[in-house]
Amino acid sequence: MKKVLVIGDSCSDVFRYGTCDRLSPEAPVAVMKPTRTTGNGGMAINVLDNLKALGVEADIITNDIRPVKTRYVDEVSNQILLRVDEADEIRPITADTLQKLDFTQYDIVVISDYDKGYLSEEDIIYITNNHHMVFMDSKKKFGVWAFGAKFIKINQKEFNENLQFFVENDEIRRTRSSNLIVTEGKNGANLNLGEKFPIENELEVRYLSGAGDTFLAGLVADYINNADIRKAIRFANRCAAWVVSQKGVAVVNPEKI
Q: Backbone dihedral region of 192: left (phi > 0), alpha (psi from -120 to 50 degrees) or beta?
């Protein structure tokens, strides 16, 4: 059976839902009566959970001590009233951990880099130098160090922030056979700054957080079986479209895709 390794920083996502039917007399803020609490692993763990939900055998290398992101959400409107982040700093991966990895066990390596300190640019170079099939989603400011990855997935906002770099270095990227996938929200995704992949069946958007993790997992899950990146992007679009129609950070349900 084919196998995937996920490397990157993780957090714990907590959602505290409640009803809000009045404003506080002390300040112009809603008074929330908590009704329930849910939680799940976020960031790299969310990628892992989605891969497993899609039937992919996968391991993870991530931080043991995880930041906690607590969101207070109105049960009726699904609007976030407040988000509290605790212990937001992440210790970096050790050189010993990286050097002991047996990359030959894995058909694909997925880098889920939220730029919280777990992976450095040098760590990413080491990973891409040691595996030929790396899918990467990184929140770092981009440099040519990124072009060791076979597939780079970023969202439209991140692409716009790095637009000048990608335009000026497009020939280098193509020479190194590094493919760029830009997700565009309700407009789907594009491949290598050209080919468009629209959303096939747009659903009501209820919550956007975690959609990028699901897209990345769907991309890898389909590619590992078919080695067709265009087909994989279409599948990833469907996965992400379904997930954003759910409350909170949901894990993809293959029966709904």
A: left
